[in-house]
TrEMBL record, chain A:
Oligosaccharyl transferase STT3 N-terminal domain sequence ranges: 22-422
Cellular localisation: Endoplasmic reticulum membrane
Pathway: Protein modification; protein glycosylation
Family: Belongs to the STT3 family.
UniProt-listed Gene3D superfamilies: 3.40.50.12610
Protein name, as recorded: Dolichyl-diphosphooligosaccharide--protein glycosyltransferase subunit STT3
Basic residues composition bias: residue spans: 724-742
Broad class of enzyme this protein falls into: transferase
GO biological process, one term: post-translational protein modification
Chain's role: Catalytic subunit of the oligosaccharyl transferase (OST) complex that catalyzes the initial transfer of a defined glycan (Glc(3)Man(9)GlcNAc(2) in eukaryotes) from the lipid carrier dolichol-pyrophosphate to an asparagine residue within an Asn-X-Ser/Thr consensus motif in nascent polypeptide chains, the first step in protein N-glycosylation. N-glycosylation occurs cotranslationally and the complex associates with the Sec61 complex at the channel-forming translocon complex that mediates protein translocation across the endoplasmic reticulum (ER).
Membrane topology: Multi-pass membrane protein
Automatic annotation (TrEMBL), chain B:
Signal sequence bounds: 1-19
Domain OST48 middle: 306-448
Organism whose genome encodes this protein: Aspergillus homomorphus (strain CBS 101889)
GO cellular component: oligosaccharyltransferase complex
Lineage: Eukaryota, Fungi, Dikarya, Ascomycota, Pezizomycotina
Pathway: Protein modification; protein glycosylation
Name recorded for this polypeptide: Dolichyl-diphosphooligosaccharide--protein glycosyltransferase subunit WBP1
Entry keywords, A to Z: Endoplasmic reticulum, Membrane, Signal, Transferase, Transmembrane, Transmembrane helix
Biological process terms in GO annotation: protein N-linked glycosylation via asparagine
Family stated for the protein in its record: Belongs to the DDOST 48 kDa subunit family.
Record note on quaternary structure: Component of the oligosaccharyltransferase (OST) complex.
TM ranges: 425-447
Localization, UniProt: Endoplasmic reticulum membrane; Membrane
Role noted for this protein: Subunit of the oligosaccharyl transferase (OST) complex that catalyzes the initial transfer of a defined glycan (Glc(3)Man(9)GlcNAc(2) in eukaryotes) from the lipid carrier dolichol-pyrophosphate to an asparagine residue within an Asn-X-Ser/Thr consensus motif in nascent polypeptide chains, the first step in protein N-glycosylation. N-glycosylation occurs cotranslationally and the complex associates with the Sec61 complex at the channel-forming translocon complex that mediates protein translocation across the endoplasmic reticulum (ER).
Length: 742, 459
């Protein structure tokens, strides 16, 4: 009886409805799982914005909500990059802020007053639910099997590679960009399949949204033309491709040019040239296709050859001339560093200094993708067996994204969606082959029947395996075990690696209880409450956004590293002697200097460890004044103890880090717990700065820049006088004495 | 209660009326030997007549302290040279520097009759004023001495009153007459830009230690006009310090002495009293104190409401007006500040370095101030700029004003519209011709289709 009712539910018209309903329920559950697994950080800590960049996005969103869209559009931010300021409205991707602003206003309209902070904190989890949905649609386009889509959605929902950038509080561009990326690709596949202007236009629309949200839109800009190019090379030109591509390119380019930050880049920047080139090529191919109908074969061949040579010649010469004359901007530095991982380190230290831009370590692939990483090649192989246009897309995407993910850690994010698609394709094939419990009396007939659904190679041989319950059991249960392990791994990674706000540090006490180290916020709130509203704070650029967001004080440099010289100036001030630094501080109106020091606690992400990057960046601009070699001992070691070089010991950064540090150890020898170094008994002396604040665990140290001496003395002399040292008369210089007589 | 308040108020008014100084009337005179007080009686009575409330203390006194609960206990300090090794713990160099840093004014006098204590020497070293190494030299001049009182030693110098230091400064110490400086302890000046010399020795003078037995002077450290008799220093916070090389010149005896220079043979009376008055008046801030009143900047437009004043943000290429009101304290009131003839008050519009450096012209005078003004175009560079007026001259207190404003870029709707730019007409024409052509093509296409269908049917 039960079986028959189940049959009623699963077959025929009702069956379709039931399955549809089931699918909706499953997708809803997946979305809920995606959202809830990202809430660890809110539960563990609090509803707080994480990391660095999100603090800027949060601040910008608050500005947008407070002042309205047009003043956001024209926003000139005078509280960063002092004294240059930043044309913020024209140099950011506004998609994220506008999205949260719209949500905020909709909720207000529905009389649900929600704090903008909570919207920002929960935006990324919310959008991850949508990403799972988009992933379902994309994968459904790739496979006839309905389980593939659901599996892909489930993978996408909880895979750590994506969670790393979308936990609650991680209010960054990627939060919505990955959804847009996946959805744009879905629409593109749809457009290619149907050759429809509507789908092409929708692709362009979402592409425009993507451009407004994330600089990674260049990936789409290059991937879609590449897809088309490969299809052309495979001889698969069709009017479907022509219609979808030209629609997407024309509308999408126009849409992307509406973003002030992008502006005329799509027609001037080399990164966008492939899309333009393919657009031109497609016209030529279409024209050739059109001409072929009228001209006999031999003539056509000759015409085609001539045309190709002429067109390529003209295009190449044009590109070279335009690039040399500067109309087309050369490739950007980040682009070069994609091809040559050593490029940035040599030429652009500012790019190399970001940990996200380092090459990926291989365990990271397994850490972020778990068993998907070995299902991934199988899925790509599946695509080769059934090489339709959309499968070509998957293959290209996989190859490109695998390479990029190997080059830069942060590009793991773009690899994750395609891994989910490919893995879901592979796994759904396995499941479809093995999981159905019916014995299948005539496996041969089944093979013939299901020729289109491409069973695994093992399933092709009628007398092996699949018929037996045992092999089904083994395969199915092992898949289930893998899936369970995957869920466990994802949860573990999310909870342990990706849910820390990094503003607040958590550590374990010996008894296992959690101990929160809250130095950052302590220091930022000290600045907020104890300094004038316009006090300029100098710090290394990593902390710029946080100071702007939490302390609400103007900064010299921040994480939007648009002006390398200004950053180098800060680097020079940090790495030079006090006498050199002080005029720089005065010229830039600096009131406070903030350094991060992890020596007491063993916190390795501190400024002394980042110091060499400051030196390198400063050396890039002032090679005669700052030299990296001077910071290494004769044996080439980077030391902070009494073996440290004089340049190191006299640098402002060293002095600020270790000032008064030895007093903590009351007679014992001071020890730096990060670098495991014993420090000199005599601590460094500061004369142009005075200590203003040191946080509980000494992580943040804030110094106030002294005014010029009231009696116009040297600061060193003034400090010595205040300590009660007697000044010696200036030693007699050689040569005739010159005395003032005017 | 009311009475109390009222009486305090009246008392306060009285104090204000009495004081000639712009910064208070509490004067501490440190004098080691009370018997010497009578030697300067005219000087004291001059000061009292100008409203100073003089307290005499011995440096050895336990009560003596420059500070009371961390605040200055006196506004001005006059130090007479001690006989003993120093001024004691309450007048250590550090305390005196602190007193200066807290806007107290100091007049320090030296004498060539006794060795200057090393504490004073190290205080002066902080100010970049240098004494000779033995600290007991006097200036001797064989051409400008008083023949009546120092015919043997030649150590009473006769000098003309100083005129203007530089063409762009005001002369606060000029006048007619001859000054007499007996046994001067000379000093030399360092490179400190805050120092302004008032009176230098004549070119024929040299310093000489009378206690040394040697007759010939060897290795002279400084001679002639390298030696200074009276020098002033204004700290960055505009407190004043004056060093007077000869305390004897303040004595009653020299206030109205008759002197005679060698050669001329004419006897004249000294004008030391007048000079002492000028010197104390300047040191105790009766002259040369500048005050900044209103500072206003706004867009150059006809009607200015209160909201248009001192905006925090400008746009590039705005026309901007800046004005600053300056008063000068003279004797007992604030008067409009007049620039010296060769001098200019300048406004800088600065971001990292000045983009504009403009002369501020006097626009109009009020009863006790002058308003200086200028108008300029904001440079075509966005950023955080500041209006800066940095006016530092010898003998005048410093003006250092810095007002930050933001200069923003053009907003999206502040550019001229496309049709207003004649150069853009070509592009606009191109645009509309493409649109028109497309529309025409579509219409032609749509309405020519049935005909072709007919042709096909006919075939």
């Amino acid at each position: 009886m039960a079986e028959s009712s189940l049959n009623v539910l699963l077959k025929g018209n009702t069956g379709r409805n039931t399955r549809g309903l089931l699918r909706i329920i499953i997708l809803g559950t997946i979305a809920a799982a995606a959202v809830s697994s990202r809430l660890f950080s809110v539960i563990r800590f609090e509803s707080i914005i994480h990391e660095f960049d999100p603090w800027f996005n949060f601040r910008a969103t608050k500005y947008l909500v407070q002042h309205g869209f047009y003043s956001f559009w024209d926003w000139f931010d005078d509280r960063t990059w002092h004294p240059l300021g930043r044309v913020t409205g024209g140099t950011l991707y506004p998609g994220l802020m506008v999205t949260s602003g719209v949500i905020y206003h909709i909720l207000r309209f529905l009389t649900i007053p929600v704090d903008i902070r909570n919207i920002c904190v929960l935006l990324a989890p919310g959008f991850s639910g949508l990403t799972a949905l988009a992933m379902y649609f994309l994968t459904c386009e790739m496979s006839t099997s309905p389980s593939a889509g659901l599996l892909a959605a489930a993978f996408m929902g909880i895979v750590p590679g994506y969670i790393s950038r979308s936990v609650a509080g991680s209010y960054d561009n990627e939060a919505i960009a990955i959804f847009l990326l996946v959805f744009t690709f879905f629409l593109w596949i749809k457009a290619v399949k149907n050759g429809s202007i509507m789908w092409g236009a929708l692709t362009a629309l979402f592409y425009g949204y993507m451009v407004s949200a994330w600089g990674g839109y260049v990936f789409i800009t290059n991937l879609i033309p590449l897809h088309v190019f490969v299809l052309l090379c495979m001889g698969r030109y069709s009017s479907r491709i022509y219609i979808s591509y030209t629609t997407w390119y024309a509308l999408g380019t126009l849409a992307s040019m509406q973003i002030p930050f992008v502006g005329f880049l799509p027609i001037r920047n080399s990164d966008h040239m492939s899309a333009l080139g393919i657009f031109g090529l497609l016209q030529l191919v279409a024209f050739a296709d059109f001409v072929r109908g009228f001209i006999p074969g031999k003539h056509f061949q000759r015409l085609l050859t001539t045309m190709i040579i002429v067109v390529f010649g003209v295009a190449l010469v044009g590109l070279v001339v335009l690039t040399v004359s500067g109309v087309i901007a050369p490739w950007s530095g980040r682009f070069y560093s994609l091809w040559d991982t050593g490029y940035a380190k040599i030429h652009i230290p500012i790019i190399a200094s970001v940990s996200e831009h380092q090459p990926t370590a291989w365990p990271a692939f397994f850490f972020d993708l778990n068993f998907l990483i070995w299902l991934f090649p199988a899925g790509v192989y599946m695509c080769f067996r059934d090489l339709k246009d959309e499968h070509v897309f998957v293959i290209i995407y996989s190859v490109l994204a695998s390479y990029f993910a190997g080059v830069m850690v942060r590009l793991m994010l773009t690899l994750t969606p395609i891994v989910c698609v490919a893995a879901a394709l592979a796994l759904s094939t396995i499941l479809d082959t093995y999981v159905l419990a019916t014995p299948g009396p005539n496996p041969k007939a089944k093979v013939v029947e299901d020729a289109s659904s491409e069973p695994l190679r093992s399933a092709r041989k009628p007398d092996v395996g699949v018929t037996s319950y045992l092999s089904k059991m083994v395969v199915t249960s092992s898949v289930v075990v893998y899936l369970l392990l995957f869920v466990a791994h994802c949860t573990w990674v999310t909870s342990n690696a990706y849910s820390s706000p990094s503003v607040v540090l958590a550590s374990r006490m010996p008894d296992g209880s959690q101990h929160i180290i809250d130095d950052y916020r302590e220091a930022y709130y000290w600045l907020r409450q104890n300094t004038p509203h316009n006090a300029k704070v100098m710090s290394w650029w990593d902390y710029g956004y946080q100071i702007g967001g939490m302390a609400d004080r103007p900064t010299l440099v921040d994480n939007n590293t648009w002006n390398n010289t200004h950053i180098a100036t800060v680097g020079k001030a940090m790495s030079s002697r006090e006498e050199v630094s002080y005029p720089i501080l005065r010229q830039h109106d600096v009131d406070y200097v903030l350094v991060v020091f992890g020596g007491l606690l063993g916190y390795s992400g501190d400024d002394i460890n980042k110091f060499l990057w400051m030196v390198r960046i400063a050396e890039g601009i002032w090679p005669d004044e700052v030299k990296e070699r001077d910071f290494f001992t004769a044996r080439g070691e980077y030391r902070v103890d009494d073996q440290a070089t004089p340049t190191m010991r006299n640098s402002l950064m060293y002095k600020m880090s270790y000032y008064n540090y030895h007093t903590m150890f009351q007679g014992g020898q001071a020890v730096d717990r990060v670098r495991g170094a014993k420090l000199p008994a005599e601590g460094p002396q500061l004369s142009t700065l005075e200590e203003a604040f040191t946080s509980e665990n000494w992580i943040i140290r804030i110094y106030k820049v002294k005014d010029l001496d009231n009696l116009n003395r040297d600061h060193g002399n003034a400090v010595a006088f205040d300590r009660g040292h007697k000044r010696k008369r200036a030693t007699k210089k050689k040569g005739p004495r010159v005395l003032r007589t005017e | 209660m009311m009475r109390w308040c009222l009486s305090f108020f009246l008392f306060g008014c009285l104090a204000v009326v009495n004081a000639l100084s712009s910064s208070g009337n509490r004067l501490l005179v440190v004098l080691e030997d009370a018997s010497e007080k009578s030697l300067y009686s005219t000087f004291w009575s001059d000061l009292k007549a100008r409203g100073y409330d003089i307290a005499f203390e011995s440096p050895k006194s336990d009560k003596l302290s420059l500070f009371d609960l961390g605040e200055r206990a006196y506004d001005h300090l006059l130090l007479l040279p001690p006989k003993s090794k120093g001024f004691g713990p309450s007048l250590s160099p550090k305390n005196i520097v602190d007193f200066l840093n807290k806007d107290g004014n100091v007049l320090l006098t030296l004498s060539g009759k006794s060795t200057t204590p090393s504490a004073i020497s190290s205080l002066l070293l902080e100010l970049d004023l240098h004494l000779s190494t033995d600290r007991s030299s006097v200036i001797v001049d064989h051409f400008n001495y008083d023949t009546l009182s120092a015919s043997e030693k030649h150590d009473v110098l006769l000098l003309q009153r100083p005129g203007q230091l530089r063409p762009d400064t005001k002369a606060y110490f000029d006048g007619e007459g001859v000054l007499a400086f007996p046994s001067v302890a000379p000093h030399t000046l360092g490179d400190n830009i805050l120092i302004a010399p008032v009176l230098r020795a004549p070119v024929t003078a040299y310093s000489y230690n009378p206690k040394e037995e040697t007759t010939a002077v060897e290795d002279i450290s400084a001679t002639g006009s390298q030696l200074a008799l009276v020098s002033t220093l204004q700290t960055r916070s505009s407190s004043r310090f004056t060093l007077l090389g000869s305390v004897e010149s303040l004595q009653d005896k020299w206030f109205s002495a008759t002197v005679k220079a060698p050669g001329s043979g004419k006897e004249t009376n000294t004008v030391n009293q007048d000079f002492a008055k000028q010197l104390t008046a300047w040191t105790f801030k009766e002259y040369g104190v500048l005050k900044v009143g209103k500072i206003e900047h706004h867009l150059a437009q006809d009607e200015i409401t209160a909201e248009d004043l001192n905006p925090t943000i400008y746009r590039v290429k705005n026309e901007t007006v800046f004005s600053i009101e300056i008063s000068e304290y003279s004797n007992d009131k604030w008067v409009p500040f007049e620039l010296p003839a060769d001098d200019a008050l300048q406004l800088e519009f600065t971001m990292l370095s000045p983009f504009h450096r403009l002369k501020l012209e006097p626009a109009y005078h009020t009863e006790n101030s002058t308003v200086f003004r200028t108008q300029f175009t904001v440079p075509d560079q966005h950023g955080i700029f500041s209006f800066r007026v940095n006016y530092k001259r010898p003998f005048l207190t410093a003006i250092e004003e810095k007002h930050e404003v933001t200069v923003r870029h053009f907003a999206h709707d502040e550019f001229p519209r496309s049709w207003k730019i004649s150069g853009g007409w070509v592009w606009i024409a191109g645009l509309w011709s493409v649109i028109g052509g497309f529309m025409a093509f579509v219409i032609v296409w749509l309405y020519s289709e049935p005909a072709s269908a007919k042709v096909k049917k006919n075939q």
